[in-house]
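Quick one:
INPUT:
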């Protein structure tokens, strides 16, 4: 159901408030460059510092913009995950209500639930809300890894759990996941630098951070890999490798927002505890943007 290039959108702020106009421009930019889908209020969208009311509003704006005349019919995966099952359930119900195509749900973080606890968390939501669900395995942020056996159990027992955003960074895990899931279940890379390696073992796309600024290139790389043209996909991967790594020098959101600000596409404003990057990281980002052909001046 979910395959291709999806963009994990940033949430633009201006003077501390959600900047709707800038957000709509971001979505229009994605549609113009052929992105298959967008993900509002995920990790990249600073979900931990976005209020419930803002979640609702941002979901609404994303769906309206993606489904409108300028959106090109892009799919919308609403970021509805939480470490509270009740909270995740409420957000998922709202995403369904306003017409999102699916819900992206991260492993419950901080609580460190058991495999059984994670199974019950996701099954509770999948049973209550008839919306396609994309699981999100990112142990580096959540402190817990969902075992592939648990993923398979959920996919068997809940027909609307249809996909995994794989961000473990493990080729072995991705290989096992792609080989053992039920028919129709898809896997998307959760790391730009791992998209091509993961697609070589069966993943069918990516939820990308870098595609906030290079959507055409990410789409082209994914399309080439899906067509088994790995030589072409590898050229794109290698051309943008430095950029993929530079965006994460100080972690997600900080890097991509700084890059977008350098390119004049965002204020670069973040909510605490996130803050501006160091001068060294800013220089590395400028160099990577120049090498990728996104800046005109040689700042290396």
């Amino acid at each position: 159901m979910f395959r291709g290039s999806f963009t994990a959108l940033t949430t633009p702020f201006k003077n501390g408030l959600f900047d709707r106009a800038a957000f709509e421009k971001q979505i229009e930019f994605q549609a113009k460059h052929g992105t298959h889908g967008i993900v509002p209020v995920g990790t990249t969208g600073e979900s931990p510092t976005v209020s419930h009311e803002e979640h609702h509003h941002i979901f609404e704006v994303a769906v309206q913009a993606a489904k409108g005349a300028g959106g090109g019919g892009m799919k919308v995966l609403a970021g509805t995950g939480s470490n509270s099952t009740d909270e995740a359930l409420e957000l998922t119900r709202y995403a369904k209500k306003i017409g999102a195509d699916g819900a992206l749900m991260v492993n419950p973080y901080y609580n460190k639930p058991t495999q059984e606890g994670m199974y019950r968390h996701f099954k509770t939501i999948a049973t209550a809300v008839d919306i396609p669900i994309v699981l999100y395995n990112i142990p580096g942020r959540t402190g817990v890894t969902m075992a592939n056996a648990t993923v398979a159990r959920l996919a068997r027992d809940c027909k609307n759990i249809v996909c995994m955003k794989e961000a473990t960074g493990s080729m072995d895990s991705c290989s096992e996941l792609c080989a053992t899931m039920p028919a129709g279940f898809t896997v998307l890379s959760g790391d730009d630098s791992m998209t091509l390696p993961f697609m070589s073992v069966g993943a069918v796309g990516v939820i990308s951070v870098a595609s906030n600024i290079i959507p055409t290139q990410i789409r082209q790389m994914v399309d080439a890999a899906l067509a088994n043209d790995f030589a072409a996909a590898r050229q794109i991967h290698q051309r943008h490798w430095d950029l993929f790594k530079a965006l994460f020098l100080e972690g997600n959101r900080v890097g991509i927002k700084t890059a977008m600000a350098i390119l004049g596409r965002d204020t670069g404003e973040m909510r605490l505890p996130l803050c501006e990057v160091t001068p060294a990281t800013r220089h590395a980002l400028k160099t990577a943007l120049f090498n990728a052909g996104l800046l005109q001046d040689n700042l290396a």
